[in-house]
Specification:
12 strands; formyl-coa transferase, domain 3; about 40% helix; 3-stranded antiparallel beta sheet; single chain; about 400 residues; elongated; alpha/beta; Rossmann fold
Length: about 400
């Protein structure tokens, strides 16, 4: 077995971060993902350090377990080939705006006419019933649109974006969930359907569950924003020799912590005795934590807090995470020999399955690496494949590659 989605055939018309992260999660679970790329390739092929052009670090991590087929959808034979493949696919996943899909003759109505059982899933900027329907969207725009930089600013000065593609990856995860649930329903009913996963609404759902807060009520009975999340003192705490992350949460956690610090009387202080009081005085409480943790080294804090069953962990950097004892034991950051890139480090599959364990089956592909093989698997004859390659409707990698480069 190669995962719970073994045998599911997905035609992946996504690029950049969000859509490829969704198809990555599906591919890791065993789905056969055919990554359909333009002759120029996915934009992320050029992002980050690389040994060969078009194989940047970001692309390598977003596109393992997939195979690459280059189709030029501007050519009639290219779009005709895709439509032929749709007849035997289970899922069409796309991140183009619906208007662009319609111009290609790939609206849901067009695709359903070819394959009534297909799951037609789009992940794009905005729901199609609102005034923003035709707008483009990227991670930074969606973070700004739902107010995340303003939430950040309450703790760190001017509005700023979170330092990862959080909207892309959250919406990508929601998209993979949507595909899996649609597959489940089709197994029960035999019916295909169209599913839309708009970035704006999906990310608003993610953020506002914490931060609608007082505006949950009509009229509001307090400000928006979960105060504990936004205080500048909510941060890793400096110790004598490093930093720790600490999450004292329950009343018992705090009582034990005050005892460890030699301030047991604080447990009886009305400001800190229960979660309501602590929330109202969170900034001064976090300031106390900041001062307290500086008094002892990291190892001592971890020993004392762990003995009291108070959640604590040493802070890593992305580099030290690679040597984290837990991750090392699991082999989460493994090494492998990539066919074109040499020795690379991979990111593990986090989940464990007792009966259908997923695995790393394919390294991230070169542009068009599997064009001929995929077309053949979807029913094209040797002569048809040869003709498509000859006219440029499909492409394979050039035999000679340029020297190594470094992307932005």
């Amino acid at each position: 077995m190669s995962g719970p989605l073994e045998g599911v055939r997905i035609l992946d018309l996504t690029s950049n971060f969000m859509g490829p992260y969704a198809s990555l999660l599906l591919a890791d679970m065993g789905a056969d993902v055919c990554k359909i790329e333009s002759p120029e390739g996915d934009t992320t092929r050029k992002v980050g350090p690389s040994r060969t052009p078009g194989m940047g670090a970001i692309f390598l991590h977003l596109n393992r377990n997939k195979r690459s087929l280059v189709l030029d959808l501007k050519k009639p034979s290219g779009i005709a080939a895709l439509k032929r493949m749709l007849r035997s696919a289970d899922v069409l996943l796309y991140s183009l705006r619906p208007q662009a899909m319609a111009r290609l003759g790939l609206s849901y109505e067009d695709v359903r006419a070819l394959n009534p059982r297909i799951l037609y899933c789009g992940a794009f900027g905005f729901g199609q019933n609102g005034p923003y329907a035709s707008r483009p969207a990227y991670d930074d725009l969606i973070q700004a649109a739902v107010g995340l930089p303003v939430l950040q600013s309450r703790k760190a000065g001017p509005p700023t974006y979170v330092a990862t593609a959080i909207a892309d990856r959250v919406v990508g995860m929601a998209t993979s969930n949507a595909v899996a649930m649609a597959l489940y329903r089709r197994e029960r009913t035999g019916q295909g359907q169209a599913v839309e996963v708009p970035m704006f609404e999906t990310f608003a759902h993610f953020v506002m569950g914490d931060h609608l807060y007082g505006h949950t009520f009509v009229p509001p009975i307090g400000d928006w924003g979960y105060a504990r999340m936004m205080t500048a003192e909510r941060r890793p705490y400096r110790t004598q020799d490093g930093y720790v992350g600490v999450q004292s949460y329950t009343d018992r956690h705090w009582q034990r912590f005050f005892e460890i610090c030699g301030d047991a009387a604080m447990a009886a202080d009305a400001r800190f005795a229960d979660i309501h009081g602590r929330t109202q005085h969170i900034q001064e409480l976090y300031a106390f934590l900041g001062q307290t943790f500086e008094t002892r080294p990291t190892a001592e804090w971890i020993r004392l807090m762990s003995a009291a069953d108070i959640p604590i962990i040493e802070m890593n950097t992305p580099e030290t995470l690679l040597e984290d004892p837990h991750m090392t034991t699991l082999g989460f950051f493994a090494e492998e020999d990539h066919p074109s890139e040499g020795r690379i480090r991979t990111i593990g599959i986090p989940q464990q399955w007792s009966e259908s364990p997923p695995s790393l089956r394919h390294p991230a592909p070169r542009l068009g690496e599997h064009s001929a093989a995929l077309l053949a698997e979807y029913g094209f004859s040797v002569a048809e494949v040869r003709d498509m390659l000859a006219c440029g409707a499909a492409r394979e990698p050039a035999p000679d590659r340029a020297e190594s480069t470094n992307g932005e």
